[in-house]
Amino acid sequence: MASNVGLDILSKNLSYFSVPAAVLCALGPHVYAISSAHNIYDNRDPRSFKDSVTQTQTLDAAAKARITKAKQASENGFETLGLFAASVVAANQVGVEPRTLNALTWGYVASRVAFNVAYVHLSQDKTMSWFRSAMWQGGVWTIMGIWISAGLKVMNAYVF
Q1: Around Cβ 16, how many Cβ atoms within 10 Å?
Q2: Which of 45, 86, 141, 147 is the most exposed place for a label (fewest CB within 10 A)?
Q3: Considering only the top CATH level, what class is 15-157?
Q4: Contact call for residues 108 and 18 (beta carbons, < 8 A)
Q5: Per the annotation, which location comes first and is thus the protein's main one (predicted)?
């Protein structure tokens, strides 16, 4: 489908750009947590940040929970990032069709954005905590979809 300026952006392979976007999705909650903590973060000992937030008397319980959840959302993003980036490379190496690859890779990024928002702002509400889990599962399933697409492409290329 061509746009008004003659570019067919949907057929262009944009999947490699989704990896830096995914890194930003993982880094964003970390930056949010640090900036919300008002000088509690100590770059000399970054791993003590969550303990420092828990122990401080300068933040109320809601702020502490939000900051802690943001830090956890960031950690979760980095935990899945390697598998995602590897899937993008594998799918590109075997030549998965760009439209499929774009849909899956950018679907992952969208799921991470939704996950972050849900984790930080909705997970305190038990009736909405399911949404965070659904977004996490959606992200993992898109990664599996990328790997399966790559596997099917290779399998079909080597017909015995």
Answers
A1: 13
A2: 45
A3: mainly alpha
A4: yes
A5: membrane
Q: In this predicted model, what pLDDT tens digit does every residue of 37-91 receive, in sequence order?
A: 888 888 888 888 888 888 888 888 888 899 999 999 999 999 999 999 999 999 9
| Domain assignments of the chain as residue spans, ordered by start | 15-157
**Closest C-alpha among 34, 52, 33 to residue 121:** 33
Query: What distance in Å separates the CA atoms of residue 87 and residue 148, rounded to the nearest whole number?
Result: 9
Among 17, 128, 18, CA closest to 69: 128
d(Cα 66, Cα 13) in Å, to the nearest integer?
Answer: 36
Q: Reduced to 3 DSSP states, what percent helix, strand and coil does the chain have, rounded to the nearest 5?
A: 75, 0, 25
What length does the chain have? 160
Exposed e or buried b per residue across 124-154, where buried means at least 16 C-beta atoms within 10 angstroms of its C-beta: eeeeeeebbeebbebbeebbebbeebbeebe
C-alpha–C-alpha distance, residues 113 and 49, integer Å: 23
* Distance in angstroms (rounded) separating the CA atoms of residues 99 and 158: 22
